[in-house]
Amino acid sequence: MEAQRLLSGFCSTSPIPNAKTQFFVKYSSPSSSTTSFAQSHKWVSFKARPLSTKLIKCTNTTHTETAEVVVSSDSYSQDSIGGILRKKLAVFVSGGGSNFRSIHEACLNGSILGDVVVLVASKQGCGGADYARDKSLPVIVFPKTKLEPDGISPADLVATLRGLEVDFVLLAGYLKLIPVELIQAYPISILNIHPSLLPAFGGKGNYGMKVHKAVIASGARYSGPTIHFVDEHYDTGRILAQRVVLVLAKDTAEELAARVLREEHALYVEVTKALCEERIIWREDGVPIIRSKENPAEYS
Ligand SMILES: Nc1nc2c(c(=O)[nH]1)N[C@@H](CN(C=O)c1ccc(C(=O)N[C@@H](CCC(=O)O)C(=O)O)cc1)CN2
Ligand SMILES: NCC(=O)N[C@@H]1O[C@H](COP(=O)([O-])[O-])[C@@H](O)[C@H]1O
């Protein structure tokens, strides 16, 4: 229901103007509804300066909620560089969210021509979700599981991202399989970062510290992050970018993980910048490459 309300502008009587208008919404719900949008006071903010506030009442068969909508001018989504519009990003996390934070900060400081408009978390209480709430970003839990009963369905996830006009989905430490519904709804628009040089050390069961332990145990002398497009299987999508990190003879998995993570943060910001500036080109053999901003004749 909340996903639908988010899409329909919270209520049929919503005064919320067109999608180009940004707004804050504060929910106060008498009931302890089972969803992440309707519990007590929650600011769901999409940025921008408030111009006016409006109260809207949302009723359904079980209860009535009031939402205070702060309608504001939309001075962000009209930003553009050379006619290229600012992009709307959804980031997916399961853990601490350091990649999410570095991307969000790069959007705020102008490095990335885009805005994170929603965070999707597989765990309501993970560090990435806490950071998003602290920054007044909307948080959606996906998927719905026994441990996360407030999670939404794949259909509601697609509808909500569409309703938020998301252009690209960035997986950043997200540990669940992305469903085919989302992949079909966002063809070649979903990226993932993996902490090894794919195709090595990828696939089901290869995530987090497990990857770095396997790299060290293998005797590999090099590792590093890979960013790839997401298809219906784990880590088999088209590789877009990599960085090489030395594996030192006496590295612990934690030391290697920290070295790789530093490169992940830089690489994901660099790739997201190229994505939002529409500098990703598809080679005839289907391999995606990135056009240099400084020298358009150069690709990587
Ligand atoms: N359709 C896709 N979904 C996801 C992809 C992808 O490439 N295609 N990438 C992963 C991220 N990832 C590696 O980069 C990855 C994440 C998790 C797993 C894994 O084995 N998960 C376990 C469950 C872990 C848990 O719930 O704590 C499992 O499925 O058994 C492998 C690779 C994100 N989604
Ligand atoms: N296979 C997926 C996987 O292992 N992803 C890895 O999870 C970590 C998330 O860190 P973060 O939450 O601090 O960004 C990152 O190292 C990322 O590469």
From TrEMBL:
One of its GO terms (cellular component) is chloroplast. Its main location: plastid. Residues 87-272 form the Formyl transferase N-terminal domain. It is found in: Plastid, Chloroplast. Keywords: Chloroplast, Plastid, Purine biosynthesis, Transferase, Transit peptide. PROSITE patterns: GART (PS00373). It is an enzyme of class 2 (transferase). It holds the Pfam family Formyl_trans_N. It catalyses: N(1)-(5-phospho-beta-D-ribosyl)glycinamide + (6R)-10-formyltetrahydrofolate = N(2)-formyl-N(1)-(5-phospho-beta-D-ribosyl)glycinamide + (6S)-5,6,7,8-tetrahydrofolate + H(+). GO terms for biological process: 'de novo' IMP biosynthetic process. InterPro entries: Formyl_transf_N, Formyl_transf_N_sf, GART, GART_AS. Pathway: Purine metabolism; IMP biosynthesis via de novo pathway; N(2)-formyl-N(1)-(5-phospho-D-ribosyl)glycinamide from N(1)-(5-phospho-D-ribosyl)glycinamide (10-formyl THF route): step 1/1. Belongs to the GART family. PANTHER family: PHOSPHORIBOSYLGLYCINAMIDE FORMYLTRANSFERASE. NCBIfam families: PurN (TIGR00639). This is Phosphoribosylglycinamide formyltransferase, chloroplastic.
